[in-house]
């Protein structure tokens, strides 16, 4: 299920304070920004989905390893935006759903990730990237994402593309803009070369990257009403594309295509984004090419779930499960449909299967399982919900939604200090520090001084922006 985390970005009053704080840091990093950064940032719609996050992580992992950037996991941040954008900070990869749905092959996205990894490995715009990497909560990520887009806007402005709809800071910051441009040119060439190195090291073609960049370079896209942020932040003069083409075609892997199984996952991802974010016409467009493919039937099942009736959606999903019994996301869809059909017990079984089949160990599936168990409503199932939700936050420390459900479950079991602490955690990771402290102190009143939960509550009480919890 594609879902938007709650509390939604922009709701919390403390977020705007955080946003202004980071806008200041951005200025310190010699980036031209306008005073509207915080307002801009609050509109950034982050979405979560176990399947898409796992796929993009699979695209990124070998590239990050080749670039010497892989230590442990890679955080994937999906942005619900139809324009094309992607950037990497440390081990966090931001990518627009628009980029994923546009790319016809995994290789096109992998190429962009390789180029971005080249920027990271080259230490490009290090100060900016350091700030981004320090961001721990979704709220702050969103803020910084807005600031990142403003960097793109600054570049637009000085390239005479002002009025492209980027909310560009008019005037001011000319020096900063010029210096960004000056070093950007060499950085782009360096990142292209690094990207080819990583693609070669992983036995992959650079054709996808070439295709994507070529598309940005073409005059056609200039005429469009929507200008992709990625294109603006990565200048693509003809000469750069020509040089890249030489490098790509020199590679012994130029003709390597994505493995069929990966292409299938990519097709399924595209149709899912279309179904949840774009509507029925977009799904129909993607299905037209091959209506009988697994991806098309997946899209059809999702549409039937979203716009049709649960019974028909269940039948279609059962056929998908029969074809790929080990696909965790077919089980997840089945769980979503059963929840909609008000059959939480069966939904819990489906989600439990999804969890057991998920090699990516997503916390999201555990949260869905926890919700279904809570909906069953017996003391036993609520106790199980607590266990699964705690497993979920163990995998995803910053999932504010999970804490909200956990608080509710503890509440129903009558464990009030645990409910208060979970509520405090939820507010904390949503960036609402004021309410986080209120609930942490409330929890402490009923906890034994010095016990682990009391200590954790104390950490939240003690929190100030300069000693942010790890
Ligand atoms: Zn670049």
Automatic annotation (TrEMBL):
| UniProt entry keywords in alphabetical sequence | Hydrolase, Metal-binding, Metalloprotease, Protease, Signal, Zinc
Molecular functions (GO terms): metallopeptidase activity
Name the UniProt record assigns to this protein = M48 family metalloprotease
Q: Which cofactor does it need?
A: Zn(2+)
Please give one Pfam family short name: Peptidase_M48
Q: What range does the record give for the signal peptide?
A: 1-41
What PANTHER family would the database entry show? METALLOENDOPEPTIDASE OMA1, METALLOENDOPEPTIDASE OMA1, MITOCHONDRIAL
**Domain Peptidase M48 span(s) in chain numbering:** 49-245
Q: Which organism is it from?
A: Mesorhizobium humile
Q: Enumerate the SUPFAM superfamilies for this protein.
A: TPR-like
Q: What is its EC number?
A: 3.4.24.-
- EC class name: hydrolase
């Amino acid at each position: 299920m594609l879902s938007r985390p709650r509390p939604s970005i922009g709701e919390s009053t403390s977020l705007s304070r955080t946003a202004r704080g980071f806008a200041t840091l951005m200025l310190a990093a010699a980036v031209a920004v306008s005073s509207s950064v915080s307002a801009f940032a609050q509109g950034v719609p982050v979405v979560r989905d176990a399947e898409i996050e796992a796929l993009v992580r699979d695209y990124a992992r070998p590239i990050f390893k080749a670039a010497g950037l892989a230590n442990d996991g890679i955080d994937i941040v999906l942005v619900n935006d139809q324009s094309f954008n992607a950037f990497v900070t440390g081990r966090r990869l931001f990518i627009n759903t628009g980029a994923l749905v546009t790319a016809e092959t995994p290789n096109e996205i992998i190429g962009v990730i390789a180029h971005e990894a080249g920027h990271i490995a080259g230490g490009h715009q290090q100060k900016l990237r350091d700030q981004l990497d320090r961001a721990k909560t979704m709220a702050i990520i969103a803020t910084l994402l807005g600031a990142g887009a403003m960097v793109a806007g600054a570049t637009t402005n000085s390239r005479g593309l002002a009025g492209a709809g980027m909310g560009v800071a008019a005037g001011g910051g000319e020096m900063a803009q010029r210096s960004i441009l000056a070093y950007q040119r060499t950085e782009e060439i360096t990142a292209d070369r690094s990207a080819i190195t990583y693609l070669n090291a992983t036995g992959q073609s650079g054709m996808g990257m070439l295709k994507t960049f070529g598309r940005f370079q073409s005059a056609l896209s200039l005429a469009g009403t929507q200008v992709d942020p990625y294109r603006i932040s990565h200048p693509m003069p003809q000469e750069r594309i020509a040089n890249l083409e030489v490098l790509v075609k020199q590679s012994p892997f130029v003709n390597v295509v994505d493995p069929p199984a990966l292409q299938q996952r990519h097709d399924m991802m595209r149709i899912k984004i279309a179904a949840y974010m774009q509507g029925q016409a977009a799904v129909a467009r993607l299905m037209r090419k091959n209506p009988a493919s697994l991806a098309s039937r997946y899209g059809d099942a999702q549409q039937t779930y979203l716009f049709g009736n649960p019974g028909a959606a269940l039948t279609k999903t059962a056929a998908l499960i029969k074809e790929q019994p080990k696909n965790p996301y077919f089980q997840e869809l089945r769980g979503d449909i059963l929840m909609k059909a008000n059959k939480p017990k069966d939904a819990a079984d489906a989600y439990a299967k999804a969890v057991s089949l998920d090699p990516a160990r997503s916390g999201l599936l555990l949260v869905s399982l926890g919700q279904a168990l809570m909906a069953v409503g017996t003391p036993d199932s609520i106790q199980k919900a607590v266990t699964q939700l705690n497993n979920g936050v163990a995998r995803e420390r910053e999932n504010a939604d999970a804490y909200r459900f956990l608080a509710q479950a503890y509440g129903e079991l009558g464990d009030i200090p645990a409910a208060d602490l979970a509520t405090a955690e939820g507010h904390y990771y949503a960036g609402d520090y004021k309410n986080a402290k209120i609930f942490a102190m409330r929890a402490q009143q009923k906890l034994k001084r010095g016990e682990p939960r009391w200590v954790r509550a104390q950490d939240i009480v003690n929190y100030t922006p300069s000693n942010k919890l790890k």
